[in-house]
Automatic annotation (TrEMBL):
This is Cysteine-rich protein YhjQ. Signal peptide: none annotated. InterPro entries: Csp_YhjQ, YHJQ-like. The lineage of its organism: Bacteria, Bacillati, Bacillota, Clostridia, Eubacteriales. Coiled coil: none annotated. Pfam families: Csp.
Length: 115
């Protein structure tokens, strides 16, 4: 449900999912930096930050019902799927949980294209 208005209520599930995904990516980013195989995670770590940033921007654009939010959400879905694949390469709990959030966000963002 919108906070100041109800004009974006139809996007709320995706807004919430983008916010959850960004948080999961930042948490996973910090956890990955502390893993013993941090060198092997370089691409994953980079993708986590890119995904979090994209999710934050998508949430912002949907919150203002922006002109290009659907196109942005399409790209966000692509990046979330890539991030989930990167996290799936590592079997620790934080990567597993992050991948789950990324897949969920990708699914919600894909739904935006049909709105």
């Amino acid at each position: 449900m919108g906070i100041a208005t109800n004009s974006t209520d139809k996007f709320q599930t995706c807004i919430d999912e983008c916010n959850r995904c960004a948080q999961a990516c930042y948490e996973c980013f910090k956890a990955c930096l502390n893993e013993s195989d941090v060198q092997a995670r370089k691409n994953c770590i980079s993708t986590l930050v890119e995904c979090a940033q994209m999710c934050q921007m998508s949430s912002s654009l949907m919150s203002m019902n922006a002109q290009f939010m659907k196109e942005h959400c399409t790209l966000c879905a692509t990046i979330c799927s890539k991030c989930a694949s990167e996290c799936d390469m590592f079997k620790d709990e934080h990567c597993t949980k992050c991948a789950t959030e990324c897949y969920a966000c990708a699914d919600e963002c894909k739904k935006m294209t049909s709105m």
